[in-house]
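SEVERITY: medium
COMPONENT: batch folding queue
REPORTER: lab tech (J.R.)

DESCRIPTION
The queue accepted two submissions in a row. Attaching both inputs and their returned structure tokens so the on-call engineer can compare them side by side.

ATTACHMENT 1
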Amino acid sequence: MLSGNYLILKKNLESVIDPKRIITNPLQLLAYGTDASFYRLIPKIVVQVHNEEEAIEVIRQCHQLNIAITYRAAGTSLSGQAISDSVLMVATHKWRKYSIMEDGMRIRLQPGIVGSRANIFLTPYRRKIGPDPASINAAMIGGIASNNASGMCCGTAQNSYQTIADIRIVLYDGTILDTANKESKKLFKEKHPEIIQEIEQIRDEIKANEQLSERIKSKYKIKNTTGYSINSFVDFEDPFEIIKHLMIGAEGTLAFISDITYHTVEDYKYKACTLTVFDTVETACQAVPLLRESPVAAVELLDRASIRSVENDPEAPGYFKALPETACMLLIDCQANSQKELTDKQDAVRQAIVAIPTLRPYEFTSDPKEYNFNWKARKGLLSSVGGLRRTGTTCLIEDVAFPISSLAKACVAIQELFKKYEYKDAVLFGHSLEGNLHLNFSQDFSDPEEVQRYADMMDELAYIVVDQFDGSLKAEHGTGRNMAPFVEKEWGETAYRLMIRIKNTFDPKNLINPGVIINDDPKAHLKDLKPLPPAHEIVDKCMECGFCEPNCVAEGLTLSPRQRIVIAREIS
């Protein structure tokens, strides 16, 4: 039952938004209380906004009434960025407008467009958006930009930070800033001179601190989404360019993204890939620096446990099951605009790693069935591993990055970590060209001893990543709730204090997605854990990622498949 300011908010919003889209029904609130992460918060109100005017009103009212608000698109967030125990503002339906500019060289997108749909729009122009996360068939543009999601082929050169052209945002008080519009920037300067001044002040402080500046540059040579994109203060001088790039990876904690314009990238006509098998992960990692200097589009690492999770697929090659326990695989992809160019690139790749022994001969394939299986095996690892976990456990995925020179030793250290804490089903895979590893394992959160095991493992993981190898605790999935307590550990006090200033500048009351990125609770990552009790053999394997929702004809009309599963588990 709503009371106090929440009741006032509901009544105020009903005068401008269809009451049917202001959700307070307990069952529906519970259904919206989950995303793809292992956290759950039940909102008090869910508001489905259909346009910018409605979004402005919700944001403005929440600010005036001191009510926390979280912005959400698809809810495929893996680190708990898309949930709230206050107001959840959902911008999906009706947020699917787009415009293609300069013959496909740029595309303007609203936040409710699924990433793969944006690429379909660009197909006639042989272009695509830069970010290519494995979740691109479900993740929406709002989340892709807010998490600075990258993926297999985009690396650090074609992520949202590097390919953003312009952005339109709504601030805490309803103020709009459209960086593509000179008049909008002029009005913003007049209305919020304090924001411009603080951005310029932080910029000048960072550039005057040579040690910090060099530290920031070094940190972004590999994938890094831990904390705010403070590399913007080093990369740019103009405060609007800094603001534009700060919004990328801010996880909806600074402003609401109303639309974003991307510089697009080339979508090559010809593609081929191969699976190269090595005797150990160390041998595979020896090949990575050589491949990085060769004409590859992507190099994906899969350890033996990853391969085991897909070896029973009807399309899987028979040799998968015969591989030794120490084996490691690299999925290598080449792309070109002519068949000759593609062949030349394949030859260059072979030559680059000719001195590295492989367990099996390898051949590149462009056969659609083989090519698609190879990539399905890699992109589907999250769900395939999640589907194998013991009933009642949660599928977790951590996301770290290391300097390429340390990748082999880091892989071994993480495998030893899993052995120490007896995570026997843990798998290791990721984007090896960027030193980016995903750690996928199952966890029982119903037992306090198991929660403590997870806490101890996370503390040691932070030590390995930060202290031992100077890597990134979050490479591309965003800081979220599970790494917020570790941001200061990775960045140090000086940089972290600047991040707090950034948060305070754009969110003076700390009402926008609180607890995400900036969180002073050292145990925040161990709270609000999502229960996954046994419910039915059909649904017990679901990890509530939401990948099904874009394909469901009922989504938006009634409960989606993910939401029905949430309810079924609650009933059980």
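ATTACHMENT 2
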Amino acid sequence: MENFRPAILFQDGCVLQRRKPITVWGAGPEGEQVAVSLAGKRTCCVVRDGRWECILPAMEADRGLEMTLSCGEEEYRVRDVSVGEVWIAGGQSNMEYFLRYDSRWEDTQSLPVNGDIRMFNVPRLTYPEQPKDVSDSGYWFREGERAWETFSAPGYAFAREIQPVLGVPVGIIGCNWGGTSASTWMDERYMEEEPLNVYLKDYEEAVAGKDPEELIRLEKEAYAVEDDPERQRAWAGVMIGIDLKEQEEWIARSAGEAENPVGPYHTARPGRLYHQMLEKIIPYGVQGVLWYQGESDENHAEIYDKLFSAMIRCFRDSFGQELPFVFVQLAPFGRWLEASGEKYPELRRRQEAVSKTVPGVHMVSIMDLGMYEDIHPKQKMEVGERLALLARGKVYGENLLCESPEVMGGKRTQEGIRLSFANTGDGLWESKEEPEAEEEAAVPSILTGPEEMNEGFVIIQGGVRVPVDEVVLDRNEILLRASGLKDAPCQVSFAQVPYIKVRIFNSADLPMKPFSCEVRG
């Protein structure tokens, strides 16, 4: 029975989700019976259409278990099984971002090993036979092992922060790929209606009149260039961080490389990575999804809220659970290689709209951590720690301050405009830390005015901008003094620019979110 095998996640060291039925599945010979045993529980099922699926009853947290899977004379033993909390770390390059590139990597390596943290990378292959080094993927591992340094830095930091609080084993499944749209992570069925069918139309236009086999050949050639070990070593330097001049040199060197056309195997194809990667882990029991993505959807920024909402529904339907999503709002950003942050304010607005309209979806702000000339902020441990804090409050029900300050409204007073905020804790405070000299010098003058760079507040009245004379923090309120303000309605916004360094925080050290609100005269 050579074709009897469990799905990829059922390997030594795996972590199973506690307090939910445990689905175990795989492939097998048609009509044969499969038995699965774990911790004294046993269940059987029959192979249908080459696939089997057994469901064990829910369990509490545990460690050091052995799972037995058998079919006829064939038997698999999965050792060192834990039961605890399992999260998916999904998205594009800022979630994929390797731990070894993080600003705190040196300190992280010296931390004591936490044996209750396990990690798993779904192999990043866009077609099954892709000749690519995925030796850090397809198996469970711990801190300190070879694959650890190329695991998702935010995903790992989340586990490191939340495991001691929960006191149970924590498993993080990395399922991410740099430069990808949310449309590739969802089944095409969820994009068939307006306006999301634009993603399907874009793909059809890209391949119209082209030979599919020729496209596949060209795609394979292009991926071979990208996957070449020497190229990957050079790319590592880009991910660690290079200045704008070095970026221009990189673009010039890469100009002659084979173009990777959008085609059947391309990661930009709608649904491609849903079928090639995510389906490999469906319907594994998980607690929720950590998500950091959106950069590659700037071409349709105005409908990102609809796209993201549809993707969440696809995940929830696919796993058969109303999975919580804890996600990261895009960081401040100016330019990197051939990308710009021009559409980021709109993308951030759309992201926040999803957190406000879709139940069980919660947003982390990192408006203090961005880099003007790098799309990949290096403080990823902080990102994971904020994801963990938000999950503790919103998913695990702890009574703590876990959300960024959020504007509740504004009113005119004799002093100026007084804005009130929720989620302030013991009060708002301002960081006096100045930006690094090289960072400040790199930012164009359009973004370095005192309002954008220091406070980020903009008042528009009658279509004209009114200068902010002074910003005063007063516990859960902010007073904006503006001598040019007239007795008429106005619009107040904050941080609605591609790049800014937000310096206003609540007592949990979480930065104020971008906002826009109307203030009556």
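NOTES FROM REPORTER
Confidence is low (pLDDT under 50) at residues 437-454.
No errors were logged for either attachment.
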